């Protein structure tokens, strides 16, 4: 597992692209695991701060309870549709997975409590359309394995 700044140090170009995609939209999608092991999809916002990727949750929301019980998660950046006529100009989408580490319960406007999680990252993927637009380009980084590139 790696903190964001460690991943960024190992794969700076990939980290920059993924950060652009995560910052492009306020709302992302996070997958957590329910008590029975089934997946749960929720909306979430993220923030980069102090070399880490952070996300929060309302106090005792289902996604927070999921993460407190089983910290594994997957996060998707969301993406625009590829431009008609030139899909190779599409910025692509980003996905990452890892474990959420709770970091206290900061106040969230007034006296309400909330959950704050730091992402420890196992895997990061950036998928986009290649040039010519007859294939996908996939950059994959895994903690302990480094960066690999695929053409499909």
TrEMBL record:
Keyword Manganese: no
Gene3D superfamilies: Electron Transport, Fmn-binding Protein, Chain A (2.30.110.10)
Protein origin, superkingdom: Bacteria
Residue span of region Disordered: 74-114
Keywords: Oxidoreductase
PANTHER family: HEME OXYGENASE HI_0854-RELATED
Designated name of the protein: Pyridoxamine 5'-phosphate oxidase family protein
């Amino acid at each position: 597992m790696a903190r964001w700044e460690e991943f960024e140090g190992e794969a700076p170009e990939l980290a920059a692209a993924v950060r652009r995609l995560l910052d492009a939209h306020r709302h992302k999608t996070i997958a957590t695991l329910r008590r029975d092991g089934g997946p749960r999809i929720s909306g979430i916002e993220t923030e980069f701060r102090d070399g880490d990727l952070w996300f929060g949750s309302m106090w005792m929301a289902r996604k927070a309870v999921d993460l407190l019980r089983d910290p594994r998660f997957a996060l998707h950046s969301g993406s625009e549709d590829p431009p008609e006529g030139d899909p190779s100009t599409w910025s692509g989408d980003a996905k990452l997975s890892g474990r959420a580490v709770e970091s206290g319960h900061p106040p969230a406007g007034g006296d309400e409590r909330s959950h704050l999680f730091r992402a420890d990252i196992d895997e990061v993927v950036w998928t986009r359309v290649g040039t010519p637009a007859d294939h996908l380009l996939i950059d994959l980084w895994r903690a302990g394995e480094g960066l690999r590139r695929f053409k499909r």
